[in-house]
Amino acid sequence: MIKVAILDDYQNVFEQIVNIENYKDNFDFKIFNEPFQNHEEAAVALEEFNALFLMRERTPITKSLLSDLPNIKYIMTSGMRNNSIDLEETKKRNIIVCGTEINPNPAAEITWALILGLLKNVKQEVDNMFQGYWQTTIGLELKGKMLGLVGLGKIGIQVAKIAKAFGMEVCAWSENLNLTVANELGVIPMSKEDLIKTSDIISIHVVFGERYKNLFTSKEFSIMKKNAFLINTSRGLIINEKDLIKALDDEVIAGVGLDVYDVEPLPQDHKLRFFPQALLFPHIGYVTAENY
């Protein structure tokens, strides 16, 4: 009997997707709904398992954890990228790692939900409607504004096409920007600094790696327009969270829309939760019925 651990099924949906009864003759499944508090707790809980199914990048599968899990032979993740897995270590240990296909469109869709939510003050207006108020804010239009895309890959391209449909100007930067694609889309190539200075809305769509860690710090916030918004649906560590909190505290930027964070789930007392100019989603861009 192969022992399989399903990790971080926060919403308890795994059994809605996979009928584990069909596999009970060969596999012994255990579903973990709550995140592990630390390495030690994870090591004890997973010690006897042969395989791990990862819902997403939540439990860090590190070198030290793998050293405490001698029975692990197989790891599967939803999606083809999972930065929480130490792939060098799994290769050394001959652990098979594989992933599923994913749809890129949910990330583009959630990006526009955040942009529209911020510019139309949706959070405040919905709350106010429930409290009996009427028209308490003044929204902004998209037409004619500049959208700066940090990354113009599969997701960035979709976001750019929608921006054009709204009548926006679009510029883009990344370390490997495809100028042919940018030209075909009518997207203006810019340096990182010029994009940050020029854009009314900046949206991040690069694939996370060390080169993009802390891509946005106090330096970048200081040159953004005071009325500009920053959107991140990629990875939390691309933005320096402490510097972002200070920028919001000091009203250096107009607001932020986030679907990703340094630590997930975001702690209940995290300061980001309490900024009126922050629109926060609980990493739902990837979480769709179709993707799962």
Assembly level: single chain
SSE pattern: EHEHEHEHEHHEHEHEHEHEHEE
Largest sheet: 7 strands, parallel
Helix tally?
11
First-to-last CA distance: 26 Å
Radius of gyration: 21 Å
Strand order of the largest sheet: 8-7-6-9-10-11-12
Q: What fraction of residues sit in β-strands?
A: 15-25%
Assign an overall shape. globular
Helix content: 25-40%
Report the uncertain regions.
none
Q: What class, by secondary structure content?
A: alpha/beta
Number of strands: 12
Mean of residue pLDDT values: 95
Summarize the structure.
The chain has 11 helices and 12 strands. It has helices at residues 14-17, 39-46, 63-67, 87-92, 105-119, 122-130, 154-165, 179-185, 192-198, 218-223, 241-249; strands at 2-7, 27-31, 51-54, 74-77, 96-99, 146-150, 169-173, 188-189, 201-204, 229-232, 255-258, 278-280. The two termini are 26 Å apart.
